[in-house]
Design goal:
With 104 residues, the chain is mainly alpha-helical. The protein has a single domain, classed as Winged helix-like DNA-binding domain superfamily/Winged helix DNA-binding domain (Arc Repressor Mutant, subunit A). It is built from five helices and two strands. The chain has a two-stranded parallel ribbon with strand order 1-2. α2 packs across α3. The chain starts with 6 loop residues before the first helix and ends with a helix.
Length: 104
């Protein structure tokens, strides 16, 4: 029997893949767009387990405060660098201006 993907998981992955270059989305925003406004933790789980194999632009997903969720030394610097390469600007406290950079 072929391994079937859960429809919500597929919608999450498709939504993440649709985030345009130079924009970010929040975990909760992706969950809501995929059909479950309470599924932010599932978005995080999918990013953790599937980013590499499904070539997801994982670095474009941030928390609802406009910050990177990964801690320094565990991916924070890589994510920040990838976002800066897409001309996303961080303030002095590492916040991203969601009014300017949030994907709508």
């Amino acid at each position: 029997m072929k391994n079937r993907i859960d429809p919500f998981t597929k919608r999450i992955k498709d939504t993440i893949k649709a985030i345009p270059r130079g924009k970010v989305a929040t975990y909760g925003q992706i969950a809501a767009m995929a059909g479950n406004h309470r599924g932010a933790r599932q978005v995080a789980r999918i990013l953790h387990s599937s980013s590499e194999k499904d070539r997801l632009p994982w670095f474009r997903v941030i928390n609802s405060k406009g910050r990177i969720s990964l801690p320094p030394g565990s991916g924070f610097e890589i994510q920040k660098q990838l976002l800066e390469e897409e001309e996303i600007i961080f303030d002095d406290e590492d916040y991203i201006d969601l009014k300017r950079f949030l994907w709508r």
